[in-house]
Specification:
The structure is a single chain. The chain has 15 helices and 22 strands. It is of the alpha+beta class. The strands form 6 sheets. It has an 8-stranded antiparallel beta sheet with strand order 18-15-17-16-20-21-19-22. It has a 5-stranded antiparallel beta sheet with strand order 8-9-13-11-12. The protein has a 3-stranded parallel beta sheet with strand order 5-7-6, with no helix packed on it. The two termini are about 35 Å apart.
């Protein structure tokens, strides 16, 4: 999510914070201890191997080898000669333990780029190591845009497909639904092509593959004619936001909500296609200080927990509506300089607002110390076997806390609410489900396991987390 979309009145917050900190008897600065640097180990080839950590720092490992193939032939040679398990890494934006291993880490950072762009067919090939932020400009040069995009655009394309990464929109599916064909290397070092008509089972499994089937190197995607977007955001009451959720979803190409825990407010964000003639000559620049405002409130509340609701309402009450315009990829993508940990579940679309309401009520009732906004989005159902949106339209609810704040008690309190509403977790986000629970939620779970065994009979691409998640001994 993008804090800059929530333009808090920081000047007033600073005044409130100053008064509160005086009352609390503190200077308002929180101390932090810089962790000792880990120099890594000497690997199998006698060279130093650095440790790995994901973006937020909640997942980390010390591999004994890091490999970065320069091309597909080198990748296939690596797989044919592998003597220990391999886990592929993208940009490190998963919060679950999909990556950690003490053996081989494989990066596709050198396999990147957008090529073979066909403006008439509206298709393009995207290499798996390509960052999502690198796709938009390249397509735009050829008169194309992505059909949709997630709001984190620093992810690697291959990793985004592996976990059904998504944006928002009632009639718009995940990034995996844009894929027309896939190239994937199996454990034997063989390159396979798959699509809806060729190796269809592999195609339906590989579009949400968890890195457990093999190594996806490239995919051909559907695109759209280049288009511009208008984004409008405004603050409303929590009750209004929940009651109008379906109405606003139906009225806009994209609609999402940011609920503010311990407040009476919710931010609505509506995005629609526009003609470029509608873009005003002068657009206001965002203040860029909303993150600091939330961070400041969070630190202040540590000293004044009794003032939590007042402070959040005070800040939210000063938010003014905001409108911005731009090329599609400029509106979709956001700079990620706010580190956090995240749990996301998708519940059936029709019960989404009800589930969100119960989560907000639980946070207030249990006085859970969190002010990080909760993001809620509608996404169209699909036919990808392990997609959280398999055969049903979804309402994805994303709960976060700052990376240096405790998230475990918070997530433990709300995860059972997701289960109550038949929720399916995002594979790259924090959850506690095991194989039996996943099998109950996905009718094609065993089919996925069958394809996985065909692609990787010896478990070359597994780690402890995947063995537990997929039920493989």
């Amino acid at each position: 999510m993008n804090f800059d979309r929530i333009q808090l009145n920081r000047r007033n917050l600073l005044k409130a914070a100053g008064a509160g900190l005086v009352a609390a008897g503190t200077a308002g600065c929180s101390s932090s201890v810089k962790p000792q640097e880990n120099p890594g180990i000497i690997g199998k080839d006698g060279k130093r191997v650095l440790p790995w950590s994901n973006w937020s720092g909640n997942q980390h490992c010390q591999p004994n080898e890091r490999l970065v193939p320069r091309n597909e032939d080198e990748l296939l040679n690596i797989l044919r000669n592998a003597t220990q398990p391999i886990r592929s890494i993208g940009s490190g934006h998963s919060f679950s333990a999909l990556v950690p291993t003490d053996q081989t880490l494989l990066s596709l950072a050198r396999l990147r780029g957008v090529e073979n762009i066909d403006s008439d067919a509206m298709e393009a090939d995207v290499w798996a190591g390509t960052r999502l932020s690198q796709i938009g400009d390249k397509l735009w040069e050829h008169g194309l845009s992505t059909i949709n995009m997630s709001d984190i655009d620093t992810q690697a394309f291959g990793g985004a497909l592996a976990t059904s990464t998504h944006g928002t929109g009632k009639e718009l599916g995940t990034l995996s639904t844009h894929v027309k064909t896939l190239r994937i290397a199996n454990a034997a070092g063989e390159m396979l092509e798959c699509s809806a008509s060729q190796n269809a089972d592999l195609f339906n499994a590989a579009r949400n593959n968890l890195g457990a089937l093999g190594v996806v190197t490239k995919a051909r995607i559907h695109a759209d004619k280049a288009y511009y977007l208008k984004e409008h955001s405004w603050m409303m009451s929590e009750d209004e936001g929940l009651e109008r959720a379906e109405e606003l979803r139906d009225a806009h190409r994209h609609y999402e909500m940011y609920a503010l825990p311990h407040s009476d407010y919710m931010l609505g964000i509506a995005i629609d296609k526009i003609d470029p003639s509608e873009i005003p000559a002068d657009q206001p620049e965002p203040s860029g200080d909303a993150y600091e405002a939330f961070r400041m409130m969070s630190n202040l509340i540590d000293y004044m927990p009794f003032a939590r609701s007042w402070l959040v309402n005070f800040g939210a009450g000063g938010v003014e509506p905001e409108t911005r315009y731009g090329k599609s990829h400029e509106i979709f993508g956001n700079l990620r300089d706010i580190r956090f940990n995240e749990m996301e579940y998708t519940v059936p679309a029709e019960v989404g607002p009800q589930c969100l309401r119960e989560i907000l009520q639980t946070i207030k009732k249990q006085n859970i110390p969190v002010i990080f906004p909760i993001e809620a989005r509608y996404i169209k159902g699909d036919d990808v076997w392990l997609s959280p949106f398999y055969k049903r339209d979804g309402f994805a609810i994303s709960c976060h806390n700052f990376h240096d704040k405790d998230y475990k008690k918070y997530f433990a309190a709300i995860e059972p609410i997701f289960w109550k509403y038949d929720g399916r977790p995002h594979w790259g986000k924090i959850h506690t489900l095991k194989a039996a629970e996943f099998a109950a939620r996905y009718e094609r779970f065993n089919d996925f396991l069958r394809v996985r065994k065909e692609m990787d009979p010896q478990g070359l691409f597994l780690n402890d987390h995947l063995r537990s998640t997929l039920g493989i001994s």
